[in-house]
Amino acid sequence: MNHNEPSKYRFSEAPIWELQRAYYEEQGIRAWQSEEVPQYITSNPMIATAYAEIIFGFLQDRARLGLTSAPVTIVELGAGSGRLACQVLKELCELKDYAGLPLPPFRYVMTDLAIRNISYWQQHESLVPYVEQGILDFAQFDAVSGTDLHLTQSGERIGPAELEQPLLIIANYFFDSIPQELLYVDEGRIFECDVSLHVPDEATKQTPSDVLETIIPEYHYRRAAEYEQESYPYHSLIELYMDKLEDSHVLLPVVGLACLERLGQLSRAGFCLLTADKGDHRLESWEFAEPPKLIHHGSFSLEANYHAIQYVCEHKGALTLFTTHQYNNLNVGCILMLQEPINYAHTRLAYRRFVDRFGPDDFFSLKAWFEEQTSVMELPQLHAFWRLSGYDAQLFLHSTERIEELLPTCSEQAMKDICHGMHTMWKSYYPMEEKPDLALACGRLLVQMDLFEDALVFFERLRYVDDADSHILYTMALCYYEVGKEAAARNYAYRATALEPDHEGALALLDLL
Questions:
Q1: Helix (H, G, I), strand (E, B) or coil at 135
Q2: Tens digits of residue pLDDT in 455-465
Q3: Rounded CA separation 454/439 (Å)
Q4: What is the pLDDT of residues 221-249, one digit of tens each?
Q5: For residues 203 and 201, what is the distance between their CA atoms, to the nearest angstrom?
Q6: CA 195 to mean position of chain CA atoms
């Protein structure tokens, strides 16, 4: 260990936050492609559907008020890989088209700090169609100091009070990853927790991720009576903590609250926040809380203090919606900072149906059980859960081995249903060069069902068909043969034998041709 006495910092000003920024700016989209940074729980079809339904309800509420001319701007903070945005847009567009109701137009703005992520989104095949429709734009935004939004595609600048409609904000895994204050409450007094960071000597020359992984924080307590003064902006919240908490460490999301305040100023009509994170909105969850541990995953994250966010927003007149039951993995909330928020019945009902009654957190808990039971499930159960998930690609890939085992006893209609599910799944799939290749998994399964024409649809989507091995090339040749495209069949059979001259299947097929 480094034997020099380490410096002490306010928790919100510690070097860990600069390392956090450096990690995301250095890695760009690779942070998600490598699966270092978790994204599934906040970027799957289930949560995308829940958000789309709530947004659709919000649009209905605005229409009921007769406000359908100006567009509703949806801003996603820290949009990361872009997968959530793509899935929300797909579902929202389908809802709007299916309903055929007079609704205000909308535009979705994906934001991030890292310019490299924005460049990736601008070129992504799944996002380009929404850009071309004029309903998707991008902006760089710094949660710590950002004010205006400068849209990259339209060139528009959104400044204070320029939006007629309320701003709709999406913030997933956001509040847990930006600077927070750390306080200690005991015997009716507030202490600030400063931090010193112990880093092995050899780690100082490594990447931000490596340094973050080796850091050992040490906390130091100092009396902080300034938080107890009536002039402190969140004085009533601090008073509550002094009255109700003992021997408790509390993360105070001052930066997050200030960010919401600045974003709220962009609209003359307030904002609606959709947010999901690990962190509780119940005061009792902070009782006797230990010092926070840095949860490392390439970057790092902490708990989000949804109690503080809920409390501050409610004291400004907001209506806040959180589940009536304890969350397990992901707390999903909706905050309506609007004039007479109780009147937003469609929004509230959508939250009730798609989050509180059974929502993304419930699904994630059930998915963990499903993955343990997959090997003993029958096809109707597998198919039902896949449909419940919104034809989730990860769920499908986990189930393919079991589906293959069940195919010999599978009915023709069941095979058609699985085939239909694959095509539906692909419509909302957001490719990120992950392994295994979803198109290949679909193609192989369809071949086993003798659905050769459908299999070719997926084989032709393979990312690296020019680098395919002899078995894949032969399988494609077989599909082309079965659908009567003999020239293509001959071409792929020859390519298979070029890689493996003694490939029996390819040689036999060439004899037939």
A1: coil
A2: 999 999 987 77
A3: 11
A4: 999 999 999 999 999 999 999 999 999 99
A5: 5
A6: 30
